[in-house]
Amino acid sequence: MPRPRKRRRVCGMPDYKTFGPLNGTDDDKETIFLTVEEYEVIRLIDLEGLEQEECAQRMDVARSTVQRMYVDAKKKVADSLVNGKKLRIEGGDYILCDMNYGNCSPCFRGRHRHGRNND
C-alpha cells in the first residue's frame, strides 16, 4: 500500500490566477495548469529568495519534494512564456495557513522569524 500523500502548506492564495499572451486571440491553444503549491514554491524561492531547505520547512515537506515541484513549475512557466500558452493557477493538494488565529508559525507571517514580535 503506497504511503499517503502529504499535503503542502501554502500561506496564501494567488491574487492573479490566469496569465497569457495579449497579442493573440488563439483560444484553441493549450492551457497549462500550475498547481497552487507549485505557485508557492516559485513565490518562496524566486520572489522571497529562500533556499530550497527553508522553502521545504515553510511548506512542511521534504527538500526533495520542493526540488521536484520547483523543476516542474519552472518548466510549465517556460512553456507558457516561450510558446504563448495560457497559464492558470488552480488545484493541487495543499492546506492554507490559518492566519485568523494569530501568527502563522511555519511561514512567519506577522512575526519575526525568531519568535519575537515585530513591535
From TrEMBL:
SUPFAM superfamilies the UniProt entry points to: Sigma3 and sigma4 domains of RNA polymerase sigma factors (SSF88659)
Swiss-Prot/TrEMBL keywords: DNA-binding
InterPro entries documented for this protein: RNA_pol_sigma_r3/r4-like (IPR013324), UPF0251 (IPR002852), WH-like_DNA-bd_sf (IPR036388)
MF GO annotations: DNA binding
Keyword Aminoacyl-tRNA synthetase: no
Signal peptide span: none
HAMAP family linked: UPF0251
Family of the protein in this entry: Belongs to the UPF0251 family.
Name of the molecule in the record: UPF0251 protein SAMN02745180_01572
